[in-house]
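Whiteboard transcription, Tuesday session. T.W. wrote the C-alpha cells on the left side:
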C-alpha cells in the first residue's frame, strides 16, 4: 500500500465512525451552516498575488513542520499579509490538523477558507460547511470519476467552491467534466512525494480557460510565481515555506511584497 492508500483506508473508517455518533442533522444545525460562502475562484481572478496560504503542522513527507503556533495567530497573520485565501488541513493522523483548526481560522478571518482533507463522502462536505469552510478540495487520485462529479455537485449545491486537484494528464482528462471552479495541479506526487514545478507548466495547456488554474506545493521562490503566471496560473497554494518560519504571516507578507515588486 502506498501512503495515499493508507490515508484513504483510515479516512473510510474515520468517516463511518463519525456518521454513527454525530448525525448529519447535527451538522446542518450548526450556525455556520447558514453562512454564505465566499468564492475563492472570484478572489483569485481579481488578485495580483494569488496566494492561498496553508496551515500545516506536519506532513507524511516532511514530518514536523511547526508545532509551536496556534491557528488563530497564523490565520490573522495571513489575513494581515493580504493573501487571497487560506487552506486549513483538517486531517489529524497524518497532518496534525482538526476541524477545530478550521473553526478557529473561520472565527478570525473574512477571506475564503479551504478545508484541506481527503474527501470521500458527502458527510465530510457537510462537515466542511458546518465548520465554516468556503471551499473544498477534491483529489482526483482518491476518487473515481463519477464520485468526483457527484461530490463536486453536492458541494456546489451547498454554495461552496470546489478545487479539483490533479497530478497528471490522465487524472485531468478523466475528471475535467466535473462541476468545479478551480483546477489545482499538485507539483507533489502524493504517492512518491516527488516535487516538480515543471508539472504545473506541462499540464497548463490542457486546462480549459473556464477554470481558474492553481499551482500547488513546493513553491518557495517568488520568481516561480512570475513564471507560472506566464502559463496562465492565477492561484498558488503555499504551505511549508510559510509554516516552517516562526511567523508565517510575516513570511507571507514578505513573499507577496516580492511578487508585487516583480510584476
Ligand atoms: O507545503 P507545500 O509544499 O507548500 O504544499 C502545500 C499544499 O499544496 C499541500 O499541502 C497539498 C496539496 N495537495 C494536498 C492534498 C492533501 C494534503 C496536502 C496537500
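and on the right, the sequence the group agreed on:
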Amino acid at each position: 500500500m502506498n501512503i495515499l492508500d493508507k490515508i484513504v483506508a483510515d479516512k473510510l473508517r474515520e468517516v463511518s465512525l463519525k456518521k454513527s455518533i454525530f448525525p448529519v442533522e447535527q451538522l446542518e444545525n450548526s450556525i455556520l451552516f447558514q453562512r454564505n460562502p465566499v468564492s475563492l475562484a472570484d478572489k483569485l481572478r481579481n488578485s495580483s498575488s494569488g496566494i492561498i496560504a496553508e496551515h500545516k503542522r506536519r506532513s507524511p513527507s516532511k514530518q514536523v513542520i511547526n508545532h509551536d503556533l496556534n491557528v488563530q495567530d497564523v490565520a490573522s497573520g495571513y489575513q494581515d499579509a493580504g493573501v487571497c485565501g487560506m487552506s486549513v488541513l483538517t486531517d489529524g493522523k497524518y497532518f496534525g490538523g482538526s476541524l477545530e483548526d478550521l473553526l478557529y481560522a473561520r472565527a478570525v478571518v473574512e477571506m475564503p477558507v479551504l478545508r484541506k482533507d481527503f474527501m470521500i463522502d458527502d458527510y465530510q462536505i457537510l462537515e466542511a460547511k458546518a465548520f465554516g469552510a468556503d471551499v473544498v478540495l477534491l483529489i482526483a487520485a482518491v476518487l473515481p470519476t463519477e464520485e468526483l462529479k457527484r461530490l463536486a455537485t453536492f458541494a456546489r449545491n451547498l454554495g461552496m467552491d470546489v478545487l479539483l486537484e490533479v497530478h497528471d494528464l490522465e487524472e485531468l482528462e478523466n475528471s475535467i467534466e466535473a462541476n468545479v471552479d478551480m483546477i489545482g495541479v499538485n507539483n507533489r506526487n502524493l504517492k512518491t512525494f516527488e516535487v516538480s514545478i515543471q508539472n504545473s507548466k506541462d499540464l497548463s495547456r490542457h486546462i480549459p480557460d473556464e477554470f481558474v488554474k492553481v499551482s500547488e506545493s513546493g513553491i518557495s521562490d517568488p520568481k516561480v510565481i512570475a513564471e507560472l503566471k506566464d502559463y496562465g496560473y492565477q492561484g498558488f497554494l503555499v504551505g511549508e515555506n510559510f509554516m516552517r518560519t516562526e511567523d508565517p504571516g510575516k513570511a507571507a507578507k514578505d513573499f507577496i511584497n516580492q511578487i508585487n515588486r516583480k510584476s
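Someone added at the bottom: The mean pLDDT is 96.
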